Structures are given as C-alpha cells and as structure tokens.
Amino acid sequence: MAMTTQPISVISGVGPGTGSALVRRFTAGGHRVAMLARNAERLASMERELPGAKGYPCDVSDAAQVEAAAERIERELGAPVTLVHNAVGGAFGSFLEIDPAVLNRNFQINTMGLLYLARRFVPAMVRAGTGNLIVTGNTSALRGKAAFAGFAPTKAAQRILAEAMARELGPKGVHVAYIVIDAVIDVPWTRQRYKDKPDEFFIKPTAIAEEAWHLTQQTRSGWSFNVELRPYCETW
Predict the structure, then answer these.
(1) CATH code of the domain containing 82
(2) Overall domain count for the chain
(3) Between 63-76 and 113-128, two packed helices, what is the crossing angle to 10 degrees?
C-alpha cells in the first residue's frame, strides 16, 4: 500500500467508548488513523465505518507486538504526527483483595504500554521537530482511593512518565499532554453499574476526544500538559 499524504495518527485502546470516539474525531480532522487494540473484530468494524481508519491488532503491553505493528504502520501509512495512548487496564479492590498479578498486568498496559509506544514512534517526531503525544488518564493518577489499589498506582506512574517525557520532548518540538478524566465515562457497562445516575453524571467519550484533538492544535506558545475534564455537575 502506498503511504498516505494525510497526517497520520496512532490511537491505542480502540474500544467502544473513548477509543472509538478518538478515531472518529481524528478522521474527521483529516487524519489517517492507525487503530491499535487486541480485538481484531472491533477494528474491522471500525474500518468498515471509517474509510480513513486502519486496524492493527496489538497488545500494547507486549513490546514485540508494538514493534511489529509500528513497522506495518510506517510501511503502509507513514510516520505518525500524533500518538494517543488510550489503552487501559483497570480493576477494583483493596490491596488485600486484589491478585498481585492484576496490578502488574495493569502496569504493563498503562505504563509500560506508554513507554513502548513512545520509544517506537516519538524519535521520528523528534527528527521532524514536531509531533504530539497525548495520554488519557483519570483522577487515580492523582490520588489512591481504597478500592483502587490495583489501578491507581499504575496511572500515577503513567502520569509521572508522561511528565518526564513532556519535560524532555517539549524543547524538541514534541507536545506531550496528560488528560485527567475526573468522571465516569458513558459506556454500556458504566451505565449498568451506575444505572440510577442521571445523564449529566457521565462524561461523553466525544467530549474527551474533542479535548484530545484540541491539544494537538495548540500553538507552541501555549502548550498544556496536565488537563482536567469533568462534567459540569461533578463534585471536586
């Protein structure tokens, strides 16, 4: 396949919520989007819906799979100008309840996945003198609540890694930003879990995607790093 002349974006964690919304927003913005997810069937469905998107089955916690997907993306589409790390591993439970392997698995997806993707795609951005690395996070990156022992430590590490990258890459022309999502995202399983909550309790995946897009459009004289999003009625 010939490389496209459109800007290329890579988006990890293309699921039915935020990931799909990100793909739709970036394709609407004129980008050719390389979608990463473990679910090949979902990727194929998105390809049928959006001609500007192409799926690459990949578990981002596996460095070898990231390398293989990156090689295909660069060969088939070209070097990306934007990387959005949206893949997430989560779990509920106190430190006494969780299987320690769960914490490790989530760390591999949330933090090591960011490291693998950034190490693979960012050097080309540095050489070009421009690019974007956006990470979707949440308030667990800022606080450790009792039932989030298998999740919060991995998001905190993810945010600190992103900050270290931002401090290094900003002077080289690559914008790094971390989106703290202080809300419950509106997807089917959360609607079921919080079925007594009103619509305004939830944040729409489209709102998250719009902010991610906005971050990639900021001028160098005013780059954001830590961005917080919440519904208007959220107590904080």
Answers:
(1) 3.40.50.720
(2) 1
(3) 30
CA distance 8 to 180: 24
CB 72 within 8 A of CB 56: yes
Beta-sheet pairing, 8-12 with 53-57 = unpaired
| Domain housing 15 | 8-229
Any idea how long the chain is?
Answer: 236
Task: Establish if 236 belongs to a structural domain.
Answer: no
Helix 152-169 × helix 113-128 angle, to 10°: 10
> What distance in Å separates the CA atoms of residue 143 and residue 145, rounded to the nearest whole number?
6
Is the model's pLDDT at 3 over the cut of 70?
no
pLDDT at 4: 64
Partners of 9 in beta bridges: 33, 82
CA 190 to chain centre: 19
- Tokens for 230? 């919440």
Quick check: helix, strand or coil at residue 203? strand
> Structure pTM?
0.95
What is the H or E stretch that residue 171 is in?
none
Smallest Cα–Cα separation from 209: which of 84, 51, 53, 31?
Answer: 84
What's the one-letter identity of residue 138?
N
